[in-house]
């Protein structure tokens, strides 16, 4: 897999679906990224977003019924870029968050890497 612009940087993974999280983690590591997580719960993701060294984030919006927007807000406060991944359409995202990058599930790993490059 092609090395990304953020290669060597730490990417926060927030994803509640175990198989997707493991695949995402492997794809990122194969592309040269360091991974932080994956975190499957809002509480764990919030802790990581405030305490860990992170260069960018990939946030699933729905974490077993809890929404990841508080994590996005923490990353914004820290000046850390992120993108949302979701199986839901853009109309379900609150207006305050609609302008942030979003990748629809299921996604191609090449599309994810392209979107990460755009964050840099």
From TrEMBL:
Coiled coil: none annotated. InterPro entries: CheY-like_superfamily, Sig_transdc_resp-reg_receiver. Keywords: Phosphoprotein. The modification 4-aspartylphosphate is found at residue 60. It comes from the Bacteria. Residues 10-120 form the Response regulatory domain. Pfam families: Response_reg (PF00072). SUPFAM superfamilies: CheY-like. SMART domains: REC (SM00448). Transmembrane segments: none annotated. Gene3D superfamilies: 3.40.50.2300. GO terms for biological process: phosphorelay signal transduction system. This is Response regulator. It comes from Nitratireductor mangrovi. The lineage of its organism: Bacteria, Pseudomonadati, Pseudomonadota, Alphaproteobacteria, Hyphomicrobiales.
């Amino acid at each position: 897999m092609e090395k990304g612009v953020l290669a060597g940087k730490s990417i926060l993974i927030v994803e509640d679906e175990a198989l997707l999280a493991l695949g995402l983690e492997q794809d990122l590591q194969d592309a040269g990224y360091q991974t932080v997580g994956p975190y499957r719960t809002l509480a764990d993701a919030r802790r990581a977003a405030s305490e860990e060294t992170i260069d960018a984030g990939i946030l699933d919006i729905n974490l077993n019924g809890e929404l990841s927007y508080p994590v996005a807000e923490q990353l914004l406060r820290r000046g850390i870029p992120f993108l949302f991944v979701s199986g839901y359409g853009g109309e379900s995202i609150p207006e305050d968050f609609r302008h942030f990058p979003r990748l629809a599930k299921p996604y191609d790993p090449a599309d994810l890497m392209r979107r990460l490059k755009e964050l840099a």
